[in-house]
Amino acid sequence: MAQGNKTVATGEAVEDMLSRIEPPERQADARVLAALMARLSGEPATMWGPAIVGFGRYHYRYDSGREGDSLRIGFASRKAELVLYLAGLDDADMTALGKHRRGKGCLYVKRLRDIDMAALERLIIKSLAHMDEAYPR
């Protein structure tokens, strides 16, 4: 069997990780994201590696033979910003969001107060729909 994903679900309690986030504003934002993603996904929060909070899981298998499990959606609190792991989004989806930047499969936000939360909710819903289509349960 081919090697799987390096970032795997762990047994760490999400609350333990959330309680260590600094500064307090970032911790509050992380808690808001955790509640929002749990509500929209219908899945409990699970730690993936030491710092990623994920919701749901899927199994992937590439033509190369590599396979593994990963989170359907999630986020991490990094030193400079929050990183949201969302898939299936394009530039047009981002117009109403507000202050952010994008990477491959990632959305970077410094503070939730800088973005439109209704727009973020729509992005999360679209990402979940994309994952359901690409990786049916």
Automatic annotation (TrEMBL):
Domain YdhG-like: 26-125
Protein name, entry field: YdhG-like domain-containing protein
Organism: Sphingobium lactosutens DS20
UniProt superkingdom: Bacteria
